[in-house]
Amino acid sequence: MGNYNNMGFLVLALVGFIFLSKANGAIHYYDFIVQETNFTRLCSTKSILTVNGTLPGPTITVNRGDIAFINVHNQGYYGLTIHWHGVKQPRNPWSDGPENITQCPIQPGTNFTYEVIFSSEEGTLWWHSHSDWTRATVYGAIVILPAAGTTYPFATPDAQETVILGSWFKGDVMEIIEEALSTGGDPNISDAFTINGQPGDLYSCSNETTYRWIVDYGKTYLLRVINAVMNEEQFFAIANHNLTVVAQDAAYIKPITTSYIMITPGQTMDILVTANQPPSHYYMASHPFMDGTGVSHNNSTTTAIVQYNGNYSTPSTTPFPTLPLEADDTAADNFTKQIRALASKEHPIDVPLKIHSRIYMTIAINERICANSSCKGPNGNALSASLNNVSFVIPSVDVLQAYYRGNNGVYRTSFPNKPPNTYNYTGDVGNNTIYPNFGTRVRMIKYGEGVEIIFQGTNVIAPENHPMHLHGFSFYLVGTGAGNFNHTTSPKTYNLVDPPEVNTIAVPKNGWATIRFKADNPGVWFMHCHLERHSSWGMDTVLIVRNGKTKETKIRPPPAYMPPCSKS
């Protein structure tokens, strides 16, 4: 434990113990040392930000309903925060992590202890830094096993394996995004994708370090797949092996047997894989799903080897999986539309049927006007992005602190319930939508309300699929469709019986997606596109769920220590 915040840590631990006695879970302790570490990839060596010197970082393993105290010691060069992606953190936004939304950054030379409260999540989630583009190398898995005395809703697998898809940049990621934001242009694309930190042998200087998953013939494995890629959605497959998807975003689904998956940044999937092929070597591979026309992106392929134990001759040619073509939106839709919640007695769902707050939210790429057309974006302007034509501005004091203390000068509660201008969202959009408003505008929601959000993709500047993520909640994806949402006919297509319960969804290019959830978690919760460049451009907002009327429905008091803000 560091020299900072020791008393705060003890207070946190005591509070956690009191809370835990009601939850009957176990307490876990982790130390995360954030530090610069030299790594060699793609024929060159560079210093990257890591946790505990590894890429990916350490895995957090808990059982359902446990609590983890994670003391983050920042020994790097930049202030940063850590987010526990998909962990609902009931009544505890103080440990959710997005920078200047629920906390200010942990400055170099200091530390901060997160109290990560697990509740109904079961399966795979992940953690990552939530400051600028540091999550390119600061990430790791969260494995949530069934609660003590319970088991999986399928035959217990013989073993488990985690696969994290990532991005590798030869350049300094902080410099890449800082340059892009200062010039107004597109940030440089990544130089490789990775599987568990390794690019695979289709890239230069990578043959000897390709990740290998060693399997035994006849065994069934629970493969936990996480997409930590920065700016691309991904197809993933294993040569000659079926994938049986049994969970997404730490919630069980009706099993889907498929030859491939499409997984967006932020999403996780639990997959049963049986090693039933002739013992040999087989490629697993992943490349992008990108249906946006003219969108700058990495179009390469990362690989790893599934290697059977036993005595056999190494194959002269390793079988390679058949992945859908990069722009195959039909393949992407065919996969995602199969996903249905398990919705069993042991794993029930509770889809809100009565809606109190309905938000119709357009998603768009925009321009910010630059004097004398001096920027590198379209028309000499800077690229930006928006939700309902509002490009979110990150404040210098975190929104949660401002809300809790009643500091009304930090944000405005005027995020619109619908687009300020009605237009043909997925057709000829005209020019009135190119330039957004800029501001820190949030949406207030009463505790206990049934909430419906209709995400509407648009044809503004660069239409593409958008992975939208909401902190603090799992929500139900009740419907998707092509074109403009029709308020009369589209709701008739909703699945209110067994929609998947997730935390990140893919909003189709020039289409729509509707989610529902009950606002039963008071706090300040970030919502954003998980394509990192879009979030950096302002494709974000904040939902503030007000306190309920009882102690158990109010935000918990803040911990004894929070990282100070520069302008608090």
Characteristic key phrases:
single chain; 568 residues; mainly beta; Immunoglobulin-like; 3 domains; six-stranded mixed sheet; globular
Describe this structure in words.
This protein is mostly beta strands and 568 residues long. The protein has 3 domains: 27-145, Sandwich (Immunoglobulin-like); 159-337, Cupredoxins -  blue copper proteins (Immunoglobulin-like); 357-553, Cupredoxins -  blue copper proteins (Immunoglobulin-like). Helix content is 9%, strand content 37%. The protein is built from 5 helices and 32 strands. It has helices at 6-23, 173-183, 329-336, 399-405, 532-537; strands at residues 27-41, 44-51, 60-63, 67-74, 82-85, 111-117, 123-129, 139-145, 159-168, 192-195, 212-215, 220-227, 233-238, 243-248, 251-258, 261-263, 268-274, 281-289, 302-308, 357-368, 382-387, 390-392, 437-439, 442-445, 450-457, 466-470, 475-482, 501-502, 504-507, 511-518, 523-529, 540-545. It has a 6-stranded mixed β-sheet, with no helix packed on it. It has a 6-stranded mixed β-sheet with strand order 21-20-25-30-27-28. Strand 14 (243-248) and strand 15 (251-258) form a beta hairpin. It starts with 5 loop residues before the first helix and ends in a 23-residue tail after the last strand. GO terms for molecular function: copper ion binding; hydroquinone:oxygen oxidoreductase activity. It catalyses: 4 hydroquinone + O2 = 4 benzosemiquinone + 2 H2O. Belongs to the multicopper oxidase family.
